[in-house]
Write a structure and sequence with these properties.
alpha/beta, 2,3-Dihydroxybiphenyl 1,2-Dioxygenase, domain 1, 4-stranded mixed beta sheet, 3 helices, about 35% strand, elongated
Length: about 140
């Protein structure tokens, strides 16, 4: 199979609150925000300058009965973190913390690099990952 990941679905309880969090606090840009007549709102955000979109799927917002059925078991904060590669984990941690982003795991050094994890208002996790600047000896 050939292809690339273009979009991830993130489960949220309030699209407006999540859109505000990701654009104002995290610094992502809005990629899509449409509400078709008779349909549910479709909102995506993502890092500036990248094609990747994170769809903010509001629990219970499905209009189509088939969608409601297959998505009824979904819930926020039940998955592993989405990883964002950054050049300077500590700098990004400081920037986001100053905007009120909660970090249950502040920056920590590992043999494979530096990482920190933040959560959104629904408990979904994101890890900031900085590769090591130089090879580390064992």
């Amino acid at each position: 199979m050939e292809g690339r990941v273009a979009q991830l679905i993130l489960l949220v309880t309030d699209q407006a609150r999540s859109l505000d969090f990701y654009t104002r606090q995290v610094g992502f840009e809005t990629k899509t925000d449409v509400t078709p007549p008779g349909g549910q709102r479709w909102v995506t955000v993502g890092p500036k300058g990248q094609e990747l979109e994170i769809a903010l799927w509001q629990i219970g917002s499905a209009v189509d009965p088939a969608q409601q059925e297959w998505s009824k078991e979904w819930a926020p904060a039940r998955g592993p973190p989405i990883v964002l590669r950054v050049a300077d984990c500590r700098k990004v941690h400081q920037e986001l913390s100053s905007r009120g982003v909660e970090f249950p795991q502040p920056p920590k050094d590992y043999p494979w690099g530096t990482a920190a994890t933040f959560r959104d208002p629904d408990g979904n996790l994101f890890s900031l990952s900085e590769p090591p600047r130089a090879p580390r000896l064992r």
